[in-house]
Design goal:
The protein is an alpha+beta fold. The protein has 3 domains: 69-207 and 272-390, Rossmann fold; 208-270, no CATH class; 397-620, Jelly Rolls (Sandwich). Helices cover 21% and strands 26% of the residues. The protein is built from 12 helices and 27 strands. Strands 2-3-5-4-6-7-8-9-12-13 form a 10-stranded mixed sheet, sandwiched between helices. Strands 14, 15, 16, 18, 19, 22, 23, 26 and 27 form a 9-stranded antiparallel sheet that branches. A 4-stranded antiparallel sheet has the order 17-24-20-21, with no helix packed on it. A hairpin with a 5-residue loop joins β2 (70-78) and β3 (84-92). α5 runs antiparallel to α7. The model is unreliable at 1-15 and 446-454 (pLDDT under 50).
Length: 626
């Protein structure tokens, strides 16, 4: 029996508080030994990638190679306080002046994680100067790394340095994924001289959390891996995600971090990097440089990323949006697949082609007008697997259609009787129930651990998840016509729990005629934050509440013959900290309780999905992105 397991199964009746059993000292030692062995193996692989892969990696840029010979220089660039930052410059051979693309990040800008050396080498051969800078306190840079503390000033100084350099024509753009996207926003809001455009990708500006459950992989795990005030990244394999109390994970791993504790204690406002929402709004709406926001439908930050775009668009500036079928780290995507589903093209190519068009327009052509295109928004519609231009996000022409949950009381498993129907169910409907045991949680992708969530390579086989007793499944009949859903799905779930706090999770699935199950999106509500994050309010056991759940935005055409499906459960441990179903202060206890969950879907308590549907006529009338 694994550490933390109990004899009660997930289908056992509610039995009150349980006690988590931690690993023994010997088990812990073996766990850490394995973590260090895996880290050593990863370090060897990184050396190989730097030696063999980065020097030869090519990008699908359309422009010809105009400068086959380039030079790479390493310089230490002083900031306003005298701290010098390690900077690599990739430029064409000779004394010419060229436009500059600057990347700033904390992950070793000479490594393979963001592939900066390969990207900037490819661009330098096409007439740009590529600049990769390690942020303060990281790798070869001086100072101390503190999340977001110095990035606005340092990015401002780095842009002005690049604009004034002897090899620069004075025009600088910034881009990058995740933290590199954040530093791109730092440049845009501080307005250094020489900055002409930014292309932030898969990122957010400010730390806003909307569902109440600490996002383990997206933020909490990041603090322990990359958020430490250390010169290098830490070994995240040391983290035992199953350990309780949750606020001891960092110390158990030897990676103590105050922001991690604030997050798992659900004290979001305590995070030093947080900004008031009004200030985030003010900064984004005031951006003046052309901006190309890039998102991925499978990125953990998709909701916040799109909110960045919406806020900036309200400011009326030149802002564009690109959303593809990607996960968080775009550089990892090499196959023409979405999960296990083959698609007609290597869809990541579009990202680089749009990057090239954007840089060419604003850096080389020095254009101050918006980039010519049929619309400012370019979306990838999954299912149809096509790119499509739109005029705004969210789409105003979307029409809300509701799908209602019903069953004969046996919605457990894909072979149960859970149904999604366009018609409300009768007033006489049995409820569906399941038992949630926090010590036997659902995993996002069965067989994979935390941090593999930044890829979607194995998403697509839900059979192991849907066979569990603690997962309810509701499906439509095979669709008679294509059904496009583009936007944010809102769910209303009438539910009761035997616990004083718990989670309810909805997963959206596309079921193919051959039985393939493709994960599309997810939404979660933490019951104690059903009225908002300002105050934790426990629920009354047995009382029925109407929970509103927003799923992550998506664009998917469920094709004729497919079925639209949802899974309802109470845990997704690799994404979110599991709810322990107890009243104890969040993150501070090893106590857990088994909870009996009941879903209602009859009469005034009908549960439903509100879908933003794009009808076939308006969809076909939009311009193609090919």
């Amino acid at each position: 029996m694994p550490p933390g397991a109990v004899t009660s199964s997930s289908s056992a009746p509610f039995s009150g508080p349980l006690q988590f059993t931690p690993r023994t000292a010997a088990e812990r030692a073996a766990f850490l030994e394995q973590a260090e062995a895996e880290a050593a193996e990863a370090a060897l692989e990184e050396q190989r990638l730097r030696r063999e892969w980065l020097p030869v990696r090519e990008y699908p840029f359309a422009g010809p190679i105009s400068h086959p010979e380039i030079v790479v220089e390493r310089v230490m660039v002083p900031m306003r306080d005298g701290v010098a930052l390690r900077t690599h410059v990739y430029r064409p051979v000779g004394d010419g002046r060229h436009p500059v693309l600057l990347l700033r990040g904390p992950y070793d800008m000479n490594a393979s994680l963001d592939s900066a050396p390969a990207l900037l080498r490819n661009l330098a051969r096409r007439g740009y100067v590529g600049v990769a800078q390690d942020v303060r306190g990281r790798y070869g840079s001086e100072g101390r790394f503190e999340l977001a503390v110095s990035e606005h000033d340092d990015t401002f100084d780095a842009v002005e340095w690049a604009a004034a350099a002897s090899w620069s024509n004075g025009r600088v753009a910034m881009t990058g994924i995740s933290y590199l996207g954040f530093t791109s926003y730092c440049a845009a809001v501080t307005r250094p001289r020489g900055l002409v455009a930014v292309m932030p990708s898969c990122t957010k500006y400010g730390n806003e959390h909307r569902c109440g459950a600490p996002p383990l992989t997206a933020m909490a795990g990041w603090f322990l891996w990359a958020g430490q005030p250390t010169a290098t990244l830490q070994n995240f394999r040391r983290i035992d995600w199953q350990h309780l109390p949750l606020d001891q994970l960092d110390e158990e791993a030897g990676l103590s971090h105050p922001d991690f504790k604030a997050l798992v204690h659900e004290r979001y406002s305590a995070l030093r990097s947080c900004l008031p929402v009004a200030e985030i709004e003010r900064r984004l709406t005031s951006i003046e440089v052309p901006t190309y926001v890039v998102c991925g439908w499978y990125d953990e930050f998709i909701t916040e990323n799109l909110l960045n775009y919406e806020r900036q668009a309200r400011g009326g500036g030149d802002v564009r949006l690109l959303v593809g079928p990607w996960h968080h780290n775009l550089e990892d995507i090499v196959d023409a697949r979405i999960g296990q589903l083959p698609v007609p093209e290597v869809h990541l190519n579009r990202y680089y082609l749009e990057m090239e068009r954007f840089l060419e327009h604003h850096l080389k052509q020095a254009a101050t007008t918006p980039l010519a295109a049929p619309g400012p928004v370019l979306l990838y519609v999954m299912g149809r697997n096509v790119w499509r231009y739109e005029q705004e996000w969210p789409l105003r022409r979307a029409v809300t259609r509701s799908l209602y949950l019903s069953s004969g009381g046996h919605a457990n498993s894909d072979r149960g009787d859970g149904v999604l129907s366009w018609q409300p169910p009768s007033d006489e409907q049995p409820t569906d129930s399941y038992t949630y045991n926090p010590l036997d949680p659902v995993r996002s992708v069965e067989g994979l651990g935390a941090w593999n969530l930044f890829t979607v390579g194995r998403m697509g086989d839900r059979s192991a998840i849907e066979s569990r007793d603690d997962v309810l499944v509701y499906s439509t009949e095979p669709l008679e016509d294509d059904l496009e859903v583009t936007g944010t799905i809102e769910a209303t779930l009438h539910a009761a729990s035997s616990a004083v706090d718990t989670d309810f999770i909805i997963n959206l699935i596309d079921v193919h005629p051959d039985g393939l199950t493709q994960y599309i999106s997810q939404g979660l509500v933490r019951a104690s934050y059903r009225e908002g994050l300002a105050e934790r309010k426990l629920i009354e056991p047995g009382t029925i509440y109407a929970y509103r759940i927003s799923l992550r935005p998506t664009s998917i055409c469920f094709l004729r013959g497919h079925r639209l499906r949802i899974e309802i459960t109470s845990s997704d441990m690799d994404r979110h900290a599991r709810n322990q179903n107890v009243a104890d202060a969040p993150g501070t206890t090893a106590n857990v309780a088994i909870a009996r969950q009941t879903i209602h879907h009859a009469g005034l308590r009908c549960s439903r999905l509100d879908l933003p549907v794009i009808d076939a006529i308006s969809s076909s009338g939009c311009r193609s992105g090919t």
